[in-house]
Amino acid sequence: MTSGSIAVILSGFPRLSETFALPELLALQASGALGPLLALKGGDGAPCQPAAAKLADVVERVPEGSDREREGWVAQRIARSRAVAIHAYFAHEPARVAESAASRLGLPFGFSAHAKDVRKPTPIALQARVHAARCVVACNPDVACTLEAAGANVDLIPHGVDTEQFTPRRAMPSDRLRILAVGRLVEKKGFASLVSACGTIGEDFSLRFVGGGPLEAELRRQVCALGLERRVTFAGICTHAALPDEFAACDVVAVPSIVDPSGDRDGLPNVLLEAMSSGRAIVGTRAGAIVSALRDGFNGLLVDPGEPAQLAAALVRLRDPALRQMLAENARQTAVDRFDVRVRSRAFAEVLIKRYRLDA
After folding, report:
1. What is the mean predicted confidence (pLDDT) over 204-218?
2. Would the N or C end of the chain have less CB density within 10 A of its end CB?
3. Which structural domain, as residue segments, surrounds residue 72?
4. Distance between CA atoms of 288 and 95, rounded to whole angstroms?
């Protein structure tokens, strides 16, 4: 049993795209170290991930109000608990609130950073925040580099994947290459490049998008302009419970991430780890932290971001079943060896307990 607990501030709850937080929070809870769990916003309206139900009864929504009023409410709520530290998910608004509440209460604070959130504060604000924080966690090397440049002493703890939920399953035979793309339909995912690539690889393929987002109408127009309506499907969003079936029904998972004009980019996308654990051949790009998990020619194929011709060439190569099998087997082994969620989540909890000195 730990001495005291850690209050945690979330951006919102539940969020379909923030599944990475759930096993880490459950690991903190299992260790006895999870204190008040406070969400600055509600859910995103998407179907809840199954694991979110395990935390739904303990999450509290911070009331609306001015920044000062909300910070005061957070501080008062934490003061009534046995929390001896405050940790935030994301380096921007949640970390700002955590820092303010910690200052009022004389407690240490810290935060976990993931992708775009490290670029939302100004460089000066980020530098001041990392110097004040006792614990700074990065989930991928791309984010870690940004934080280290700001002067942080970073604990690099990759998110994990449930290697028991996402397991290799043999796909039914098909006379076409079945390509799957999973994620929010936003620019940084690079799905426009994927559609362009598919417009040049012939007719013996299908492409299935799983996810929703603001670029759906634009992607549909692109599909129509290339005459791909019969081969491209937009399936909408789904939860983790349905994703294993999606991976089992495909031959190739495409992760064509790019750096968008604002500089936003993926870190290490959840779908990449899930596809690896599911034993699927993957084509990804050298964007964000994808290269920290995917090795070209070993457990996947890598191309430059925003290069449809390279992406098309990789997809053509993946028509070879033997190549797909070799990449898939290596991908699965990488997921088991490096990214098992039980190992990674325990590591997260252990680091927070150590950094906030709950084991003293």
Report:
1. 96
2. N
3. 5-160+340-355
4. 22
